């Protein structure tokens, strides 16, 4: 399980690099979404390793907030404003 956690951490690092250096804004948004998925998986693996049930709830809340964040980013970059 520790190896899986390190692989997820490595993948998260690569995705964070894509978020920072992405050539297009669409690439950055997709990388941010994938980063949140990988981070959620990392929290689930950590919860399993530590046998802490509250981390599952934390992962669920984080995934929901990350999904809403991606929707807000897409709407902002599509229309240029958020209140329409």
Structure description:
The protein is mainly α and 84 residues long. Helix content is 86%, strand content 0%. It has three helices and no strands. The chain has helices at 2-21, 25-50, 54-79. The longest helix is centred in the middle third of the chain and has 26 residues, at 25-50. The radius of gyration is 15 Å and the shape is flat. The mean pLDDT is 90.
Features of the shown structure:
84 residues, mainly alpha, 3 helices
H/E element order:
HHH
Spatial shape: flat
Structural class: mainly alpha
> How many individual helices?
3
Blueprint of the fold:
Blueprint: H1 2-21, H2 25-50, H3 54-79
Helix pairs in contact: 1-2, 2-3
Briefly summarize what is shown.
The chain is an all-alpha fold. It is built from 3 helices and no strands.
């Amino acid at each position: 399980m520790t190896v899986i956690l390190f692989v997820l951490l490595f993948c998260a690092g690569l995705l964070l690099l894509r978020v920072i250096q992405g050539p297009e804004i669409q690439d950055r948004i997709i990388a941010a979404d994938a980063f949140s998925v990988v981070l959620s998986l990392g929290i689930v693996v950590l919860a399993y390793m530590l046998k802490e049930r509250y981390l599952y709830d934390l992962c669920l809340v984080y995934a929901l907030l990350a999904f809403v964040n991606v929707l807000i980013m897409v709407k902002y970059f599509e229309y240029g404003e958020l209140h329409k």
